[in-house]
């Protein structure tokens, strides 16, 4: 049994994330999708709750007929201690041996903790990019084709794009 | 889509838990299994990490040919504020409408937060009981038949019963 | 302007607390009532939220025609560092110079922080005692005369005594 | 009994805040003034402790002959979980039904938690503005007429404007 | 350069601790003395602050002419996550390779984190025992000969034994 | 016995810090070196763990033949409550009476807590400056002469400058 882990904040989960997930799932028996900053929501960089993000991920996987039984989605709150973060993660999830991540700091922290890491391909990051999608939500741009149909429907159903605009409008 | 939630500490996950899970899954489309006290491990009442408990649950479900795609297993750390606990939970998990729980305080807290609750049947609680199983582990009693085969094998593979004995032997 | 501070958990606020409060108010211009363990509720020793306890205190003061404008009620969450507790308190409340408390440790901690302290008289502690009142609530005993009328009515209106019984019944 | 809640950081409490408070008090029987970010002080955006802010509010109310017995001032520390914030607040304060706030995010968070909200008029926000007042304190500008007399005297007595300048001068 | 670590709460530091320390120092070039539960004080099991405990240790070492330059005393607050504790410790202290500890759980946690461990001899634990010394302080027993002269003088100078009696007398 | 305290983050410890330390040690019997933000590491402003910083300080002191027995190095995690910070510090360290610090806010916070403070000379701050050294590490500039030989060797041995570059390269 070979397990990999794929960390992200998924604000929101988009088609680029889906490509990484499919690519990673090909390399392992089971893939842990780690939903980071799980305690955050209703902010500019983290508008959606962990639960909402999990619904997006599951909906997208079902829509794409990916075997849910091989995917383990785990939300994890931040701890503000980078040097123990990889160990903190390993407490919350089934045992794993491979990290899939592009972020050099994340790669280093897991390497220091003894994990092997594989850097996934970029999958058109200029187009599929959470920061860009959040901007498009705020400016009434076209973000529909950057996420799965189910994610688009879900975000609309919880008025997630309106939430983002309200956060922008807040003077705090 | 009807979702239910089934909270527990699952130290360890035993056959009584499995019965509640199967019974609950019959009543909803998807069932969230909430792994509480997720930050704890290596204590007398919480010997196993959240990740280890998730492995027990998944192994038991696979062994019993239960459709994993309908089960959402979520670890959640304690917050020490009972009056916001149900709201805290709802931040970490997909939206749900029904709680399955026997504990009167848990039932009350979720009722106060607006959820409907169903009390599951007892399923032989005297026999299938985590406290009892932990005691049997410590005293070299027979706990093998109280958990699934895969859970037994898993606990043995991580020397979980030895860990419990070491905790008992600690003078702190 | 002379201010005093009177700390307690007030689970619930009873007629003995009222006597201390009136006695203390006689000695100062304004009295701070510090509602401790403010983050706790729904437990055996802390069944009521801070907000509920504040309602009890205000209701009792109005019922007894005590000048509310001289009373400052402040909830404060626990910090688990005794040696900085008095300084933590002084951050949350208007400046004060006198502590009213019987608990020797509380007295010492505030003395070490440079405050003067006065020990209030006992006011029939065997009868007016929060632990006892909580026990009477659980056993359907007679606790009505140990709290003010408004507090009794308030606790009944939020079914506070039933909440306590549910906590007792919980197997966690 | 109709209660409203008016949240703010009040760094410092100024005459615009006073107008909102008087306007809100007209609409309810009792008004909760929620002093947010209560754990913070000695920073550029939060120079004053919660206790100091409470003194400003009380002093201003007395100076303006507003009935203190209808005002409930409650300090509340931040929690970094927006989605449970309204529920966290409701734990610390007497029960309320109406929120008075202009900030769109605050409005949304309380609406999602089931409260009704009323947006207060702006009351000359360009003039009465805490950020501006803090800037005037730092630059030795004229901020005296933007706060009540008692608040001005209080801030001077604790050398609050000097504290702000020292914070600006800090190289951390 | 070989470094060892010796964890304890040292409430108070006694002559048995001194023996372990001397024994351990013989086995390594430098010895880290880890003062645990550093955030606690003024309780029955943790009466002394971390700073006070550090003064006891330094005083005892000087009195016994042990080379202070080979001893690194580090206070560390608790985290309530046993499975990351060893990693948490390693963030706060210079790198080390050997643990000196008798507590089976501590030994296991550090072993799981990849450290080697040596169990020190018992050095008359029935006599030199912090729990016993605290009891003797409370009952006016003879504890003078169980700690170093400088520790005895220090505890007397801060009235540490009186503090313990006040904690016992507290009704919280 | 006169003790002073010298707080800093020491990211990294450089020759300017060393000058302050020597200057301070001349004024007291023992000097506490307080390593702040001890929980942080692997960030742009706090790349090194507390343990790594302690190794730099000890190495530099040994290299400069300063008597280690007069220096007490204590790591301390941040608390986000400025008004209790000085009291928090005093809990973790042996008693002291003099603060050595240049930062006006730190000076004020300790003065408010009753300590006397001495402002050390600047010792060529334009040259010896942690922010500058971190920038030089990132840009492959010459920082070797700004730290002690042992600190340079130590940082190289843990690949600390590479860690900083990876942090810069991170897209989070």
Automatic annotation (TrEMBL), chains A, B, C, D, E, F:
Source lineage: Archaea, Thermoproteota, Thermoprotei, Sulfolobales, Sulfolobaceae
UniProt keyword Aminoacyl-tRNA synthetase, yes or no: no
Catalytic activity: beta-nicotinamide D-ribonucleotide + ATP + H(+) = diphosphate + NAD(+)
Cytidyltransferase-like domain residues: 5-135
Broad class of enzyme this protein falls into: transferase
Primary location recorded for the protein, binned into one broad class: cytoplasm
PANTHER family assigned: BIFUNCTIONAL NMN ADENYLYLTRANSFERASE_NUDIX HYDROLASE, PHOSPHOPANTETHEINE ADENYLYLTRANSFERASE
Name of the protein described by the UniProt record: Nicotinamide-nucleotide adenylyltransferase
Pfam families on file: CTP_transf_like
Coiled coil: none
